[in-house]
Request: fold
Amino acid sequence: MIVAFSVTPLGVGEDVGEYVADAVRVVRESGLPNRTDAMFTSVEGEWDAVMEVVKRAVAAVEERAPRVSLVLKADIRPGVTDGLTAKVETVERHLSAG
Reply:
């Protein structure tokens, strides 16, 4: 499965980069395949492992923020691995063909 999620601290002002970095650090240290962009962090793996990483990422932000918002989208597709790379490669292949 692939989960794209965004953790946002609330009540800490406009500059939230250091809080978000705490969450991303948890994801990167998990060892699961992941990718971060301006809006979301995506992580790939088995259900329990991915959800545990999301939970720990939220907890890392909760340690310093009075309130946390979590947005999560999941692609649950048993038997598929390396979806983070394969999905992008498919789109790129179609773009280069046209």
